[in-house]
Specification:
The complex is a heterodimer of chains A (493) and B (300). Chain A has 493 residues and is of the alpha+beta class. In chain A, 32% of the residues lie in helices and 19% in strands. Chain A is built from 15 helices and 20 strands. Chain B is α+β, with helices and mostly antiparallel strands and 300 residues long. Chain B folds into two domains: 157 residues, Uridine Diphospho-n-acetylenolpyruvylglucosamine Reductase, domain 3; 95 residues, no CATH class. Bound molecules: flavin-adenine dinucleotide.
Amino acid sequence: MSAKVSAPVSTFQSESQSNSSGTELVDRLRVRLRPDQVRDSATEVNLYRHDASNMSGHASVVCFAESRDDVQAVVQVANEFNVPFVARGSGTGLSGGAVPPDGAIVISLSKMNRILSVDPVNRIAWVEPGVLNLDLSTQIAHLGVHFAPDPSSQQTCSIGGNVANNSGGPHCLADGVTSAHIHAIEVVLPDGTITMLGGEDPEPDGLDLRGAFIGSEGMFGVATKIAVKLMANPFEVATLLLDFSTVADGAYLVSDIIADGIVPAAVEMMDQLCLQVVEEYVHAGLPVEQAAALLIEVVGLPAGVEADVARILELAQARNVGGIRVAADEAERALLWKGRKSAFGAISRVKPNYYLHDTVVPRHRLPGVLDEIYEIADRYELFIINVFHAGDGNLHPLLVFDAREPGVMDRVRSAGDEIVRASVAAGGVLSGEHGIGLEKRDLMPLMFSDVDLAAQADLRRAFDPALLANPDKVLPSPATCGDIHSAPEGAWV
Amino acid sequence: MGMSSTEANFLDAASERFATEVGAEGEVTIAGSGTRSGAVDGVRLVHAPVGIEWVQPAEMTIKCGAGTPVEEVDAALREHGQRVVIPSGGTIGGALAVGQSGIDRLGYGPIRDALLQTHYVSAAGEVVKAGGPTVKNVSGFDLCRLLVGSRGTLGFFSDVILRTRPRAQAEQWFMSERDPWELIAELYRPISVLWDGATVWVHLEGHADDIAAEASTTGMVETDGPSTLPQQARWSMSPSELESLRVATPGSFVAEIGVGIVHHTRPAPNREQDAAVVEMNRRIRHEFDPAGRLNPGLAD
Ligand SMILES: Cc1cc2nc3c(=O)[nH]c(=O)nc-3n(C[C@H](O)[C@H](O)[C@H](O)COP(=O)(O)OP(=O)(O)OC[C@H]3O[C@@H](n4cnc5c(N)ncnc54)[C@H](O)[C@@H]3O)c2cc1C
């Protein structure tokens, strides 16, 4: 990420205040781990103030875990000293999930990055949480299998982070998000107990604790080992780029395809501004004159793929498709995907900063909500780029700006707030894949009543009665609940 | 009961009535149509709302009362060429509460992934919403996954929004005497691969030409369907552990290859549960239903 906003330090209060001196804590950690695994110099601690969002916090110390026992030791010390802790994968989260609560211990999992076992026949791999998403699929490609969730950040994000955020990606349309691809998770619970949630077997006894843990944003404990489901690599792949003279035509086609009974592996939309900036960056021959393009991928066996492609093109004609480009070979396919996945990098050529939103609306509301989003951006005089997972209605409006411009942050914040509200009002949800974290914590009442939130708090209390695991995220505190204007500084609400 | 109302938003009012019926005190149990072991004996009985509020084919979602028969949902979706990944028989709420997937789990995934949103009635007698109406959503903790398979001990499903899937254009069962692990490695995303120690039954879906081509390269022959599944016991094993069944009497079981469920004539071996998992189950149940009034006795 080249563009990052230097935001004010968040001022939220941690629910469990540290009552001990920092050096005592660090000394204790250095007894439980090797001293070089425990870093508390200002420079090093500062590196861990952010994730990829614009929010920041202040940790007291950073620990580099190399094993489950290291993680357990740190969590035990956190309990002894009553200090909050936060697990950290690669820090690519966009909702402030890995931003440390004040005075917290950061537990970095990046050194726990081994692939432990791969069973290509029964399609299960065991990995440590710090394994990078793309590394897993690359390293097992020769076995004919892959890990399906493919966030656009897949070169850098960790599988532990994917689990904690229940991450998605372009290819989650047909195959489902992370939750559908996790069999079991070894965790260090917030009180330091080690256990296994779920199992390799399909119906473990009792409640689905595995399911409850996935998407818990570091608040239910630390994942130290993960059994992931592997999928067979596709037999045949067809990648299409269709362009349209209106955004609405492209957006309607998405619903038409699904209603027709076709679920492509991926359906991504890029609007004109996106096509233009990406084209300058990757030179893929993108249709820069057009209002929008859909990148559609169909996978499967030959006859099925052929029939689906033919039907999609028929439906596209009815929506006034302009250009139709079918990737002729793997190189062209890779180029088209590079266009889609380098959107964020390319955007820094327009303005130095961006803010990426993440909401979901019912597919049939896409045209209307996109109109509203353009109108909002216009009104706040902001550049907006739309590049998103259209197939599941997952919008990613990207506000592009220059943070040095006086007053721009307020406009970005207000525009973002309106976009989220417009999505929820259209029957959508707050987040499709980036999570709630700090960013949308105080917007939770837009979707959930006090009673609904209390149930979520009950679940959290069962996992973490002492409220030490990444406190202050996801759930609005009772004081701020219902009052969506008292957000932590730096949060876009 | 059994009649489906088509009034817009009728489920909101139905959920409120259902919550009043469940109340906040005293033991209470819920029954669907009783096909999945049903209610707790001797305890006050309630029924969840029935009926389909809407089907949205282009969203691939359906909203219905939890008391709606699976067959009714199936029929409504069939009109649109869609289905839900919920085993047939009984009610939607019953199937979700029990949480057992069908024999198509290999191809379609587990039942827990079918539930997008629910209003359930809590032990306090309140209507609580979990999840969200869209096919993709990570807003808040995943109470939906937690509720599926919880046997009504955390709350009673009142209404649900389910993810639907398109029905395949063609489908066919096949038989083979080949090794099931060899077969599964050669097939592209089969829907089911069942094995009784001697015979393998394979279910394929997709384009008719692809199905025929796969069958001929793997040497399978068409059949009407698998043999009847033993009903006595349901084992849950790691898919790799199924190899241990090579020494079991052929015909005494039918195993779901690649999944790990075994439909067996013999009772499942006792499994040790980790103490921390037992404790976490207890804590969650205590948070959700401190008095243990919902489906008492079903928690273990
Ligand atoms: C350019 C860009 C594109 C992106 N595209 C996508 C996308 O397409 N889809 C998508 O879903 N996301 C996307 N993201 C967001 C982000 O990459 C994902 O949320 C990712 O899964 C985070 O992984 P991480 O390792 O960086 O986690 P971090 O940012 O380090 O942490 C995220 C959360 O997980 C917790 N956590 C991390 N590791 C563990 C663990 N082992 N145990 C318990 N909790 C843990 C943290 O406490 C925190 O709450 C994108 C981000 C960027 C910058």
